[in-house]
Write a structure and sequence with these properties.
The structure holds two protein chains of two kinds. By secondary structure, chain A is mostly helical. Chain A contains five helices and no strands. Classes of the chains: A mainly alpha, B mainly alpha.
Chain lengths: 113, 112
């Protein structure tokens, strides 16, 4: 049951990330879509902090896990570096992690509140 | 396609979590392995142009297998070494791309 709820979340989180990313990549070559998804997902996972028993939390954990992505993020950073867009690579890395941490922290604070 | 890949990726990450019960360890391993796999697949797909499979494997499996939210959330947990965990994810993932991407470009031939 636990796994079913996590997978159900993932079944929705994955495609939603894809749709958002595709949509935003039609406006810009920069990875704003993945940035937005990762920040939102970090906040959401933060909200489940310390309570992984209820169904909705398990669903949210599965959703946030598949909604956010590390592989696309890292490939975006590296490919920008390879194209000699050093500033973009560094900015993506620092800003994504900075805001990701902030968003997760906010979520955790709210969860404990 | 993306959904199926995402479910499979999440299952694989869950499986790794069962083998390595420590949360941070499981996430780190899934992320490094996922980045390495994604780098290799990216080259393969670029050169072979497999589009349906691409959706299943890249934004589906690899992106669902790896996760950003667990990195930021686990980094903030009260247990020590959160920032080290974050740095390990970044460092080893970039090493994985730097090693795998050129290797894949060498190994996978360009088809005209």
């Amino acid at each position: 049951m636990k796994l079913t709820l996590i997978l159900l979340g993932a079944a929705i989180g994955g495609p939603l990330r894809f749709v958002i990313d595709q949509k935003i990549r039609t406006f810009t070559t920069k990875p704003y879509g993945i940035f937005a998804v990762n920040i939102l997902g970090s906040f959401l996972l933060g909200l489940t902090y310390g309570r992984a028993e209820k169904g909705i939390d398990l669903f949210a954990i599965g959703f946030a896990g598949a909604f956010t992505t590390w592989s696309t993020f890292m490939l975006d950073v590296y490919l920008a570096y390879e194209l000699k867009r050093y500033k973009e690579a560094a900015a993506n890395l620092v800003i994504s992690l900075g805001f990701g941490l902030l968003a997760a922290w906010l979520g955790i604070q709210l969860a404990q509140g | 396609m993306v959904s199926f890949g995402g479910i499979a990726g999440t299952l694989a990450r869950y499986g790794i979590g069962e083998i390595f019960p420590e949360d941070r360890q499981g996430t780190l391993i899934a992320n490094i392995a996922g980045v390495a796999l994604a780098a290799a697949l990216l080259v393969l797909m670029e050169r072979r142009g497999i589009s349906q499979l691409r959706l299943l494997l890249l934004p589906g499996f690899c992106a669902g297998f790896t996760t950003f939210s667990a990195v930021t959330a686990h980094a903030l947990e009260p247990s020590e070494g959160g920032m080290l965990f974050l740095a390990q994810n970044v460092f080893f993932s970039l090493i994985a791309v730097i090693v795998v991407l050129p290797l894949a470009r060498k190994v996978i031939p360009v088809r005209s």
